[in-house]
Amino acid sequence: MAKYWKSLDGNTIENKDSKLEKISSTNRRDFLKMFGFGLASTFVLSRCENMTHKAIPYLIKPEEITPSMANYYASTFFDGDKYGSILVKVIDGRPIKIEGNELSSISQGSANSILQASVLSLYDDTRYRNPQINGADTNWSTIDNQIVEQLKKIKSEKGKIAIISQSIISPSTKKVITDFIKEYPTTEHIIYDPVSISGLLEANEKSFGKRVIPNYQFDKAQVIVGINADFLGTWLSPVEYTKQYAKSRKVDEDKRTMSRHIQIETGMSLTGSNADERIVINPSEEQNLVATLYNYIAAKLNQKELPVSTSATDISKLGDELLDNRGKSLIVCGTNNIETQLIINAINQLLGNYGQTISVSRALFTKQGNDVKMADFINNLDNYKGVIFYDCNPAYDYPASKKLSEAIHNLELSISLSTIPDETSVLVKYICPANNFLESWNDFNPKQGIYSLSQPCIHPIFNTRQEQESLLKWSGNNTDYYEYIKDLWNSEIYSNTNRVFDFNDFWNISLQDGVLELPENPLNVKFNYDINSIKLTEITNSGLELQFYESVNIGTGKYANNPWLQELPDPVTKVTWDNYAAISPALANEKKLKTGDVIIINSTLELPVLVQPGQSKNTVSVALGYGRTVAGKSGKDIGVDVYQMISAKDYRNYALSNISIEKTLDFKELATTQQHNSMEGRDIVRETTLEQYKKNPSAGNEKHKEIEEQHQTLYEKHLYKGHHWAMAVDLNSCTGCNACVAACSIENNVPIVGKEEVKRAHEMHWIRIDRYYSGDADNPEVVYQPVMCQHCDNAPCENVCPVGATNHSSEGLNQMAYNRCIGTRYCNNNCPYKVRRFNWFDYNNADALKGNLHDTQNMTNDLPRMALNPDVTVRAKGVIEKCSFCVQRIQEKKLKAKLENRKLNDGEIKTACQQTCPANAIVFGDLNDKESKVYKLFNQQRNYHLLEELHTLPSVGYLTKVRNKS
Amino acid sequence: MKKINFYFAKIILFFSLISIFLVQNTFAEENQKDDHLSSNELKLGERLFYGLINTGENTINCASCHNTSVIDTFNWNPSILEIALSTQNMDSTTFANLLLNPVTKRMSEVHANIPLSGEQIILIRQYIDTYRTTGLKEQKKLVTRLSLFILLIVIFIAAFVDLSLTKFIKYKVVHGLIILIVLVFIFKILYEDAAGLGRTKDYAPLQPIKFSHQVHATSNKIDCMYCHHTAETAKSAGIPSTNVCMNCHQLVREGTYSGRFEIQKILTHMDQGQAVKWIRVHKLPDHVFFSHAQHVGVGQLECKDCHGLVEDMHLLKQENDLSMGWCLDCHRTQKVDFFENKYYENTFEEYHEQLKNNTTDSLTVAQLGGEDCMKCHY
Q1: N or C: which end of chain A has fewer CB within 10 A?
Q2: Using CA atoms, how far apart are residues A910 and A890, in angstroms rounded to an integer?
Q3: How far is it, in rounded angstroms, from Cα A805 to Cα B373?
């Protein structure tokens, strides 16, 4: 068993900031007064007439809609950065949940946290409700007339117009923009990505003549090397990569092999924390290390070496492993530096990975930004007369925001097509608010030969219009965008298919499926770039370095105003509602810093410190996407904006060298959900190595058998005559990505409590992912463990409830009746897993008394409330709640089986966490069904239960983690 | 002593405040004075409406059929307010014509030989029109239970005051007894009312359209599932959308009891594109999950098992109190048709064996988990 840390100096927070305000001031006398009043008012109330409720049926009921029943519509999410093919659950006309589409080879049924939480942006209270001119509401015809007049004027003067956008993967939208350019020929379309990979695209163009992202296939690789690329968290297509990654790392008694993952990085990323081996480097060493690796491999293969000094980090072992797995390895790098990417391409080429683990025939299109063009645009802003900001926010997420915002004021015509007020849209004259993506028609082409559609799931809530329709109108085309897409599909996509169906059927099938995947045409690429011609910068002493990274929950910051995302803990650090400067324990010791101390970086950036084990010594890592200045309540002034510190000279560099840090006397407590990092000597997470597992499938889990034999009880065993629900969690697959936490919160109406409450450990998530470190503090090993209610057969919580509000169901569920609960919290106290959550306040406006409401993020306003799941009760103040194994889903599927007069099939019921898990780490099912997957997993020798020595007999089993250590 | 007095004062003040508040509320609607009756014409119209002026051999009181105040019984005939609203845009001649020479069957029967002249009808109409702004008169509410409660409180206070201050009665046992008995009754009332809070057994509100289940389900033999067609498959049985009504009422324009008046309302809703806003009768609390599909579709229950004999109701009434005890009573006694559904056979194998071997003769819902909290609460 690995030695897990008891605690890391400076890494435990003990309420240093104890000046927490007292929110409630009820004392004994007030209580008695209320009690008396309550008694009297009960009588008074019972005398009153009951409130009349209306029952309003449809006038003419649409055929496919049954009130109270959910419909699922296939659609697509693409925010200019991440792509996902999705199913939208719509109930009584309201989209309430987003899930991955199983038919898509990219989503494969899963969705990450941002994608799932994006349903809340439909109900964002801050959305534009009308078009605006200079901040005043107007109507569409007025604004259209003025804009067209101005456009025509600029056209006649031959003035330049720019359309600024993030990456666009919609064939129809591209055509709309082309049409617009035809009408106004002086228009330029400039694409940028908030987190740029321009360097990778340029390198690929130089290497094999295609400015695309190749298709990485992590499932086909035996050795995976990631260099500062968080491919499981944020890099390019994390859901797809996690699916592939997990596939290659699944082990069972019949398949005792798995891939090996080596991560080379600066900060502790989600991907790095999952690696079998992690090599820590500074950002400035990256190129040198990559070149050394190239030279090592090239030397062994008798190729010409690059003229570069050898890296200080020893890469010979890594090089040997790669050489042993030629054609079965994969190296990816997240840098935006062309030269480094060129060497990476060359290494993959030398190893023969192209055509094996990397293919170009299914190239990924989700990022197309061109750093050089964007930099040119910013530098020559004075030459432009008109700018249209197409669903983008460069005043926030592009480094030169100050220059941009000054220039916008001097423009003759400035238009924003944003749905919500952002840093850019508040600067422009004309705001033509676009629909939310759940109100829009669109098509997408995320990969070569893969198409998908999005369809409106709700009528536009406000007086908004799709951005494509705006552009079409201004180009003098009054076609409906829906017809426009259909025409394009008819002429360009339908013709590429085998045309078994006529076009209308083809369209309907594509729309129903949401995706259209044409057969792959194998494409071989030719390498014609001479790697020896590149110029490499020699490594110099870079002092203290600053690294910027995209956070898993907040991403580029577009969805910063989403309280669901803000309250999701960071997978590694478990911090919510903030960004921070992650520093290594060694640096913390040297500078005498501890978590929460505020430092000033380069005399401008004020940030609290977080001591992060595994951080490279002389580096500081800070997340992008925070510090929005124009956003709703949940996003504004949360954290600090660091986009402006990125150097925007040609290719954006997400690292800074020779920074200075200065300690202040301030202390800012971070709101973390896991303050205790120790397992207290118990084997809460059990792990082994692949080598040992090969010899003995119960390696690391020897105790399980021992404990099972010792179980004795005075109580009668529960009899489960029908179902016995259980869940198995594969710790070897779980990457800790948080998608399950998001899914659970959305499915079960888990309330948002806000930063101050998280600090008091009052967060309400029904499932949490515990993270433990072991080994060397400078480069530790990390384990993740999702913990939800264990639904114990011998539940400690059930015995202590004085009112029987929590008890055992006949199907093995530890059930919780909120209306019986009187809030003694005995169950909470007696639960060894700490999975029960108490409603300290009325977070949902579910109380009769108004004054109890504690809603820091306006989640109880009419609009955000529309996202609530009507099949799950919203809980009032003073009751305990916890994971129910998604009982609403169990009941739904059981009823379906009964109505169809058949047996309930294994795998039919999927809990929300299981449904979305990109690693397929969670399996739910019936233990009484001997053929079920969960039964088989429970009988694996890796299976154990959390704190099983307590004899709680949990219905959740964990499978030991296996590391592929060499 | 002083302290006790202070407490008394507080208690008395508290309850008197509540009673004042209550009494005020209950009688607030009464002082709706008809200010509009100042002119003689309106007064004349009113008297004609109530049949107080002799207009011939069969002087009639219109109010005997067309109610002028809010009633809680079912009246097929339109109330004075409904008449006022529906004839709002009609000129006087048409109105008089409609009344004297009715076209529909039901109206011509009841309005035959009305001894009213055109002028008198115009007067009546002016009176009717006043209801458009004032609405129907509210009836005085009986407050027996409340009075009883207040009386008990007064007795309680009096006994207490006598016990500690005035001391008219010498034997303290009497006070004790009185206080005890009064307290028992006070708590009984409080308990009954608190337990009944939110329960609406026998609730039968008047609906915007006088829709009769008896006419549709019994007289015309329409199956329940024709209108409530999602009862077998969905959580909600479904209130029929207006287009379902129109399936028949496209042709059926006149009813036995209400003539054209009520059916016309559906047509108006359809023409104006506005949904009917029914008053909801059966409503479970938000923390209860109930599925019609489970009970009607799987359990094969009859509608009347829970809703009573709806087919005999002109005005829909909530037959059962829909309390948890009522639900569980049924779950404990209702037998499950085990062999009807393959789900049960395949899931409860042990029970299946027992039934086949005749070691068990039947199984109730409760035995299959029908008493679990999380069957209904989640």
Answers
A1: C
A2: 8
A3: 9
Domain-embedded: residue B186? yes
Single-letter amino acid code for the residue at A273: S
Q: Which two tokens stand for residue A826?
A: 């005995």
> Does residue B218 sit in the same domain as residue B75?
no
Three-class secondary structure of residue A823 per DSSP: coil
Query: Domains, chain A, ranges and CATH?
Result: 198-364 (3.40.228.10), 545-672 (2.40.40.20), 689-963 (3.30.70.20)
Largest CA distance in chain B: 88
Which CATH number goes with the domain that contains B57?
1.10.760.10
Question: Which of A45, A61, A807 lies nearest to residue B373, judging by beta carbons?
Answer: A807
ipTM confidence score: 0.84
**Residue B207 located in a structural domain:** no
Domain count, chain B: 3
Q: For residue A811, list chain B residues with Cβ-Cβ distance below 8 A.
A: 369, 372
Q: Angle at the Cα of B293 (from B290 to B294), degrees rounded to 5? A: 70
B15 and B51 fall within a common domain: no
Q: Would you tell me how many other CB atoms lie within 10 Å of the CB of residue A68?
A: 17
Report whether A737 contacts A233 (CB < 8 A).
yes
Token pair in block for residue A192? 């940028």
pTM of the model: 0.87
B109 and B218, same domain (yes or no): no
Is B11 contained in some domain? Answer: yes
Interface mutation vs chain A, best among B26, B187, B336, B377, most A CBs within 10 Å: B377
Query: B325 touching A, CB under 8 A?
Result: no
The verdict on B323 and B276 lying in the same domain is yes
Q: What confidence score (pLDDT) does residue B38 get?
A: 54
Domain match, B260 and B231 both: yes
Type of residue numbered B359 = T
Encoded tokens for A781: 């090993």
Asked if residues A472 and A484 have their Cβ atoms less than 8 Å apart, the reply is yes
Mean pLDDT by 10 residues, chain A (966 residues): 56 44 63 70 57 87 88 93 93 92 92 93 92 91 92 89 93 93 91 91 88 92 93 92 93 89 93 93 89 90 84 87 91 91 90 89 90 88 90 89 85 91 91 93 92 93 92 90 92 83 90 90 79 78 88 91 93 92 92 91 91 91 92 88 85 88 90 83 89 89 89 85 93 93 94 92 93 88 93 92 92 92 93 93 81 85 92 91 94 93 92 94 93 93 91 93 88
If asked whether residues B164 and B279 sit together in one domain, one would say no
Residue with tokens 């009988």: A939
| B273 and B251 within one domain | yes
User: Checking DSSP bridges between strand A597-601 and strand A575-576, what pairing results, if any?
Assistant: unpaired
- Beta strand A54-55 with A213-216 is unpaired
Q: Report the C-alpha gap between A640 and A637 in whole angstroms.
A: 7
Whole-angstrom CA distances from A535 to A306, A335, A344 are 10, 16, 15
Q: Report yes or no: A283 and A782 within 8 Å, Cβ to Cβ.
A: no
- Number of helices (H), then strands (E), in chain B: 17, 1
| Residue environment code for A724-755, b if the CB has 16+ CB neighbours within 10 A, otherwise e | bbbbbbbbbbbbbbbbbbbbbbbbbbbbbbbb
Among candidates B196, B275, B368 on the partner chain, residue whose Cβ is nearest the Cβ of A58: B275
* Residue B127: inside a domain: yes
Are residues B186 and B59 part of one domain?
no
Quick one: which of A252, A426, A300 has its CA closest to A939?
Answer: A252
Query: CA A566: distance to chain centroid?
Result: 11
Chain A contact present for B139, CB below 8 A:
no
Shortest distance between the Cα of B207 and any Cα of chain A, in A, equals: 10
Q: Please give, rounded to a whole number of angstroms, the shortest distance from the CA of B95 to a CA of chain A.
A: 30
- Quick check: B298 and A813 CB within 8 A? no
- Do the Cβ atoms of A903 and B343 come within 8 Å? yes
* Helix B118-134 × helix B40-49 angle, to 10°: 100
